[in-house]
Amino acid sequence: MDFNFSEEQLMLKDGAERYVQQEYGFEARKHIAAQPEGFSREHWRTYAELGWLGLTMPEDVGGLGCSFVEMAILMEALGRGMALEPVVQTALLCAMIVERGDAQTQRETLLPAVIEGKLLLSLADSEAGSRYKVGCHARTHARKTARGYLISGAKTLVVAGESTDQLLVTARVESASQGVGVFLVDRRAAGVTCRSYRLLDGSRAADIELHDVEVGDNALIVGSERALEVLTQATELAILASVAESLGMMEAVMAITAEYIKGRSQFGQPIGKFQALQHRMAEMFVATQEARSMLYCGIAHLDRPAAERSRAISAAKAVAARANRFVCAQGIQLHGGMGLTEEYPVGHYFRKMTMMEKMFGDIDFHLDRVAASNRKPVTV
């Protein structure tokens, strides 16, 4: 694997970092987080204009056809600004499910709208007690009718659930196979109810209930034969994107903390000259670089067999989540009491870290996943 970025990738990196620095400052982010939707529609439209929502989508639907490396570059930059827009949820997770699904007509209709920033998609998969399981269908079922399906059930923690236009709902298809399918459901359809709430980082999620929601035959995006495979692949890409986002957060916390200890004086000199604090900064740097190495390892395994790919991605998530927790906690410690105030950014990074650690599986979940996989060494 070549770890050097191409000229186009460097342009994307510089442009995304400059945008976050100039347009997504800390005060601007606090204002966005206080809005009812928990993200900015204006920024979302700008992401579409810049082509960021179609980075990994095929060219035949209006995307740029880039590799996952470009998505990782973008998410690292957005992580630096703690961006609140549901890029991973809509433009990667849901878009990948539709792109790899069985419904060609829906693919040609939905994906261009996502890329243009006109359509928000959210995956409604998690259920009460499911503990990070993919393809949940114990509490949600789809009954076949003459005109399509009737879907009933309940889903939890649907990212941007109240703001989304369409839901991708996982449900048990009541047939001989009793497998899980993925259905396209209008968020405002009759029988859909939503209870929205704010998450720790200021973004919003929702619990969704479905009561005999009627959909047509074309609403089945992925049938029971392939649904679990497609959901797993898309979720693993989302996990890796969240690792890149965590990496951007760690880089930002280190920069903020380094600036603070250089400017704060004690005993007649900047506290950054104290060797004990320099050691802490060095440990933060090492943890961040370990997370970066694991991200690259995960990307290198995207084309490997499923078992190797899953193991490498879970290892990357576990290492990055632990490193992010350490770096953000040390950032708080080195700021002293100031780090816990609402007016200073490092505490907000800690909140977002806490939330992201639980998204797509926590540290223990992914360590168990690695332990349960085959024992062959992961190599780059």
UniProtKB/TrEMBL annotation:
Query: Residue ranges of the Acyl-CoA dehydrogenase/oxidase N-terminal domain?
Result: 6-118
Instruction: Look up the record and name the cofactor or cofactors this protein needs.
Output: FAD
The lineage's top-level taxon is Bacteria
In this chain the Acyl-CoA dehydrogenase/oxidase C-terminal domain maps to: 240-372
Q: Which UniProt keywords apply?
A: FAD, Flavoprotein, Oxidoreductase
What is an example of a GO molecular function annotated in this UniProt entry? Answer: flavin adenine dinucleotide binding
The entry's family comment says: Belongs to the acyl-CoA dehydrogenase family.
**This protein's name:** Acyl-CoA dehydrogenase
Organism whose genome encodes this protein: Paraburkholderia diazotrophica
Organism lineage reads as: Bacteria, Pseudomonadati, Pseudomonadota, Betaproteobacteria, Burkholderiales
